[in-house]
Design brief:
It comes from Gasterosteus aculeatus aculeatus. It is found in: Secreted. GO terms for molecular function: carbohydrate binding; growth factor activity. The chain has 273 residues and is an alpha+beta fold. Among the domains are: 45 residues, no CATH class; 132 residues, Mannose-Binding Protein A, Chain A. It is built from 6 helices and 10 strands. The N terminus is likely disordered. The structure holds calcium ion. The site of calcium ion (CA) has 9 residues, from loops.
Length: 273
């Protein structure tokens, strides 16, 4: 653009605006590209142009205009921010819906499947523990016919001992006749020799005083109570309702059921025969 003979555009536009060819422009040393020579010559010929061109005056600026520009800029930025916030809100709502749908699916489907899986794993673990207990009972313990007996040194009350035998896939020892009683007495005696420790048997009169039942609920028909002129058994009445075997002679004694002592489990090994 040229004003009063001064050009502020690039060289090509300068040339066009001022009526010079590019070649003519190159001959003028001043890089400001003032259209001084041709215009001054033309106007000087008319006598209305001074010898020295005045300095270009700067565009007048108004404080009010600057304020309006700043105000408009702030308004436009606020509008942009408002639009961005709206997009964020839409995105947040969409994400919230998806999370809600996912949680709904988890509660309706996955939890049920997970519970089934946990039940299966728990049952599988119990079965494995029973099988391992049965194998241990017959490998470490004393075999007699299809039964295997094993002494455990963990001190338990009667109920705890019964529970442990069941968890191992067996049950508390239940000698049903003289032959089983004598075999069991020999095994327990050799296990604790030379000591003498009582071990729980699966025999009690918890249901009715004097009515002795095995731990599986069947009735006891053979007994090996201690007979001694100083302390014949059973002598505990309603206070002592669980039966233990002495390891030195195999005799039976009635005891408090909450007493902690060693216990004897038996395992069915019919599958191995
Ligand atoms: Ca009793």
């Amino acid at each position: 653009m040229c004003r009063d003979g001064i050009c502020f555009l690039d060289t090509t536009l300068w040339s066009l605006s001022c009526g010079f060819s590019t070649k003519q422009k190159d001959e003028i040393p001043n890089s400001t590209h003032v259209c001084q020579a041709p215009v001054s010559e033309a106007k000087r010929a008319r006598g209305d142009v001074p010898e020295i061109l005045p300095e270009p005056e700067a565009e007048p600026t108004s404080p009010v205009s600057d304020f309006e520009n700043s105000y408009n800029y702030v308004l436009s930025r606020l509008a942009d921010m408002d639009q961005a916030i709206h997009k964020l809100n839409v995105g947040h709502y969409t994400l919230d819906v998806k999370v809600s749908q996912l949680m709904d699916r988890l509660t309706r489907v996955d939890v049920e499947e997970l519970e089934d899986t946990i039940r299966e794993v728990y049952q599988h673990s119990k079965d494995n523990r029973k099988e391992m207990g049965r194998l241990e009972g017959c490998q470490k313990g004393h075999r007699m016919g299809y039964k295997c007996y094993l002494v455990f040194n963990g001190h338990k009350d009667y109920a705890g001992a019964s529970r442990k035998c069941l968890e191992r896939g067996g049950r508390m020892a239940m000698p049903r006749d003289r032959r089983e009683q004598e075999a069991l007495a020999d095994y327990v005696k050799s296990f604790f020799h030379p000591g003498n420790w009582p071990v729980w048997l699966g025999v009690n009169d918890l249901r009715s005083e004097g009515l002795y039942l095995f731990d599986d609920g069947t009735r006891v028909s053979y007994f090996q109570w201690r007979r001694h002129f100083l302390s014949s058994q059973p002598d505990g009445g309603r206070r002592e309702n669980c039966v233990a075997m002495s390891s030195d002679d195999g005799d039976w004694w009635d005891h408090y059921c909450d007493r902690n002592m060693n216990y004897l489990c038996e395992f069915d090994d019919r599958e191995a025969l």
